[in-house]
Specification:
The protein is an alpha/beta fold. About 20% of the residues lie in helices and about 35% in strands.
Length: about 200
């Protein structure tokens, strides 16, 4: 049977949980995630978690959040604390762990931060974005909470909600985005999450 994006994301979540529990290393995580995102069938996904306890996958992330339990995306080894684009560009996207504090700076350049497939080192994380004659684009999924408080000075520091979804539950990660846009722009896009299928109620 062909694997869906939701199937791949569920297996990726099991691997991230295994990393936070110390069952696999960061290098093993990267290797297995490469296999996961290249998989075309469910059969190709099964060996990736064959040596991990089934308890890691007992509750799907979406179902866990819907029931009000702690969010399974919180935890893991923090990724890079900075993204700098000076006369160039910087990108942070895909499977990575947002640290408690991430600083992004763009000067005559650009930076892109995408959190739709990210994990979060803490429940509350902060991104400080400073764009001077440059631009920073931050994409957040609609299943986390976001608080934008940056300042635009002869520039723009804005949140654009393209999801139409209600606020995320209180158990979801919260990302505060502050900073400054001077003769430049910082745009935060809230878009539909690309993680898992909606939770299914057993027996429904």
């Amino acid at each position: 049977m062909r694997a869906s994006d939701a199937d791949r994301e569920r297996v990726a979540q099991v691997l991230h949980n295994a990393l936070s529990e110390g069952r696999i290393t960061v290098n093993e995580l990267e290797e297995r995630l490469s296999t996961v995102y290249a998989a075309k069938t469910l059969g190709e996904l099964k060996p990736v978690t064959a040596d991990l306890p089934s308890s890691s996958a007992m509750v799907e992330p979406a179902a866990t959040r819907a029931l009000g339990f702690p969010d399974q995306r919180i935890g893991g080894h923090p990724g890079s604390p900075v993204s700098i684009g000076v006369l160039s560009g910087a990108v942070r996207k895909g499977s990575w762990v947002l640290p408690p504090q991430h600083n992004s700076f763009a000067f005559w350049g650009g930076a892109e931060i995408d959190l739709r497939q990210a994990r979060f080192a803490d429940k509350n994380c902060t991104i400080t974005a400073v764009a001077i004659m440059g631009g920073i684009q931050i994409t957040v999924p609609d299943d986390i909470n976001v608080d934008v408080t940056g300042i635009g000075l002869m520039g723009g520091f804005v949140l654009e909600d393209k999801s139409g979804a209600p606020p995320a539950p209180a158990t979801a990660p919260t990302v505060k985005i502050n900073g400054l846009a001077f003769w430049g722009g910082v745009v935060v896009y809230r878009k539909p999450a690309r993680r898992t299928e909606p939770p299914q109620i057993e027996g429904a």
